[in-house]
């Protein structure tokens, strides 16, 4: 990820007000995975989609398109809120829609809701009700207008967070005064792989076969090197429309694999923005007829895996003398390596092999400008004596609430014994 800059004002959990001329990203036809520009003169925006229609009748497609593109704002004050939550696997996203009487600007204006937890693996059938608490809102790029996406966390009817609610614990850590005083910034690099629908094989790869070796694909252009750019670009624009603090995107080392970056975000917002960006990506790939995979090693062999590198800094790290604070943080991270690895995503052992720009899962390491280490420090940080660190261990399917909160807890709140600290410093050659 590029150098961490000052966070955008979008990090506050409010809807970013867009110009009245902004158009919703509605559903239009994807053909052969190429986004076709709308040729109708009456349309004001080219950034719209069509859905696949069962019938080949163009008039039926157009009627469906017109209904999906309806702007209800002139006719009613009511809006549609899409309540989104993390499902029972800890990585799947679920959602359902609700009509709200009028536009809102803050999640506190929204009612709590509930769902059948027995159908998501989060509650038994005899006591299946799970309560949704609205926590963050974003503009809805699919419905447009005043409609919103609502990131929720999940509780029992008695108000206790259910086991898959990782946001609750993260919010506790980020509300700790020591943590808030340090204003933790996060820049998260979300990698993902696009798969062909029926064969679950990377997009652009010959079915049952392999493309040429890695090398020409990273940040490349061309029909033989870049597969899925329209999906990446559509997602980029949709995130900006929604108010997600997305900071860039690029093609990755393995063909059919992409990355986007979210941040800098402050505290709990990092998790909210990543989860909402994942939801939008799921919806776009759904419309494109492509499968989204967050598997950390979707293809075995001499191919890069998919990570979620997390760039992190505190106020003390960003100020003069911050490099010493960074080295102290690295020392703490080395002493809790096992705790972090166990929380950094399922299947990560298939990715963290010491090859393909990764460190071994069993050994903690750090280095300047070294992408084969657990923790990388940039050259500019070393030269300026302040900046940020990059934790390269998290897998693409990690829970951002867990990872961001754990980084803050380990580097700000947790204190090792002096003996352990001294031994770790000697082992890592850290003079702190």
Determine the strand fraction and express it as a percent band.
Answer: 15-25%
Terminal Cα separation, in Å?
Answer: 27 Å
State the total count of DSSP E strands.
15
Order of helices and strands: EEHEEEEEHHEHEEHEEHHHEEHEHH
The H-level CATH homologous superfamily of the largest domain, spelled out, is Glutamine synthetase/guanido kinase, catalytic domain
Query: Which parts are unreliable, with pLDDT below 50 for 5 consecutive residues or more?
Result: 1-5, 8-22, 25-55
Describe it for me?
The chain contains eleven helices and 15 strands. With 432 residues, the chain is of the alpha+beta class. The chain folds into two domains: 73-164, Glutamine synthetase, N-terminal domain (Ubiquitin-like (UB roll), Roll), CATH 3.10.20.70; 174-430, 2-Layer Sandwich (Creatine Kinase, Chain A, domain 2). The strands form three sheets. Strands 8, 9, 10, 11, 12, 13, 14 and 15 form an eight-stranded mixed beta sheet that branches. Helix 4 packs across helix 5 (269-288) and helix 7 (322-335) packs across helix 11. Residues 1-5, 8-22 and 25-55 have low confidence and may be disordered. One of its GO terms (biological process) is glutamine biosynthetic process. It is an enzyme of class 6 (ligase).
């Amino acid at each position: 990820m590029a150098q961490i800059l000052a966070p955008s004002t979008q990090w506050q959990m409010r809807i970013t007000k867009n110009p009245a001329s902004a158009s919703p990203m509605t559903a239009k036809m994807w053909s052969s995975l190429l986004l076709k520009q709308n040729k109708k003169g009456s349309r004001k925006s080219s950034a719209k989609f069509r859905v696949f229609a069962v019938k080949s009748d163009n008039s039926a497609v157009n009627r469906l398109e017109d209904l999906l593109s309806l702007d209800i704002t002139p006719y009613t004050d009511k809006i549609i809120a899409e309540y989104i939550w993390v499902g029972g696997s800890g990585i799947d996203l679920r959602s359902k829609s609700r009509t709200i009487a009028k536009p809102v600007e803050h999640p506190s204006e929204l009612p709590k809701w509930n769902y059948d937890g027995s159908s998501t693996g989060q509650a038994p059938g005899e006591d299946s009700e799970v309560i949704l608490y609205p926590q963050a809102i974003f503009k809805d790029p699919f419905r447009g207008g005043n409609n919103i996406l609502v990131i929720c966390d999940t509780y029992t009817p008695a108000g206790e967070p259910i086991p898959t609610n990782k946001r609750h614990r993260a919010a506790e850590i980020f509300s700790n005064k020591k943590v808030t005083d340090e204003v933790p910034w996060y820049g998260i690099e979300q990698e993902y792989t696009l798969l062909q629908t029926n064969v679950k094989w990377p997009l652009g790869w010959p079915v049952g076969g392999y493309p040429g070796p890695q090398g020409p694909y990273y940040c490349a252009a061309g029909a033989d090197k870049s597969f899925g750019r329209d999906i990446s670009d559509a997602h980029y624009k949709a995130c900006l429309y929604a108010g997600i603090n997305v900071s860039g995107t690029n093609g990755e080392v393995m063909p059919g694999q992409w990355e986007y970056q979210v941040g800098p975000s402050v505290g709990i917002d990092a998790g909210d923005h990543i989860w909402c960006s994942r939801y939008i990506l799921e919806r776009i790939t759904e419309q494109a007829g492509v499968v989204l995979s967050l598997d950390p090693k979707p293809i075995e062999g001499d191919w890069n895996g998919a990570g979620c590198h997390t760039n992190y800094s505190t106020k003390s790290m960003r100020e003069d003398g911050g490099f010493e604070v960074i080295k102290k943080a690295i020392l703490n991270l080395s002493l809790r390596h096992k705790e972090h690895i166990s929380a950094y995503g399922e299947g990560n052992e298939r990715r963290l092999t010491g090859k393909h720009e990764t460190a071994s899962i069993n050994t903690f390491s750090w280095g300047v400008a070294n992408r084969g280490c657990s923790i990388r420090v940039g050259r500019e940080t070393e030269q300026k004596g302040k900046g940020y660190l990059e934790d390269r261990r998290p897998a693409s399917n990690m829970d951002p609430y867990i990872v961001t909160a754990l980084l803050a807890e380990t580097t700000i709140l947790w204190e090792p014994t002096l003996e352990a600290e001294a031994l770790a410093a000697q082992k890592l050659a850290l003079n702190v």
